[in-house]
Amino acid sequence: MPEINPHILRYDSLPSTNDEVARQAALGADEGLCVIAAEQTAGRGRLQRAWLSPKNAGLYLSILLRPALDQQSWPLITFVAALAVNDALLQCCNLKTDIKWPNDLLSNDRKLCGILAETIETSTGRAVIVGIGINVRKNSFPVELELVATSVETETGRAVAPDELLESLLGAFSKHYQTLQQASGNESIVRAVSARSSYASNKRIRVNVDGNLVGTTRGLESDGSLRVETDDGEVKTIRAGDVTVVRAT
Ligand code: BTN
Questions:
Q1: Per-residue pLDDT tens for 20-71?
Q2: Which of 21, 46, 47, 51 to mutate to test the pocket of ligand 1 (most atoms within 8 A of CB)?
Q3: Whether the model pTM is above 0.85
Q4: Which ligand 1 atom is the nearest neighbour of the CA of 40?
Q5: CA 209 – CA 238 distance, rounded (Å)
Q6: How far is ligand 1, taken at its centre, from the CA of residue 131, in Å?
């Protein structure tokens, strides 16, 4: 199975590393292009949200993939990224994180990392851009976000060197991406995420589909969908959505 052979390009400032990778992909860039910026002036998150990216306060990067995978496995590329960040934070910072379905990493229930995977058409075929934002330094976002967001420095007392984290992340990404390409790769990736996610099973959640569905999570399907059992016992399969925890009152 082909490994990712990263070709790293560093920038002082970019509007968005995802947009820069999209631009270079349209010009024919190969799989493995990795664009990293010290700051983003128009960083983007899911659902048209902004991703605050102050200079040297986080790791902001995007990786270009040209997957030779069944289209149904493509949603699992987000899981590959989540596993890679989870591994890298454990390896470099001894920090254990929780994977919040489908694409956030949390520490102490607060968001430390977000992942934005986008698909684009290029003249050499469809490509995926995997954008990863990790909060590294504390006090780098507005106080009102401190209830929901955290950073490596807040959690460990130490701001990891971005290059150390990047190297570990790319190594882990390559390993999990290879796994995804193997026979039964989907199942292996889903099993690994389930083992590192308190959200996969037995979590009371609300998800913004069907007018805010409330229920209890009942595991992941092999395509990465989340099974949610509603209070009347019906099990729904959720392909995409924004999940929040429902706490007992
Ligand atoms: C989310 O949680 O909504 C996803 C956030 C993804 C942020 C990263 S930072 C690097 C890359 N460039 C962007 O503009 N967004 C992603």
A1: 999 999 999 999 999 999 999 999 999 889 999 999 999 999 999 999 998 8
A2: 51
A3: yes
A4: 14
A5: 8
A6: 5
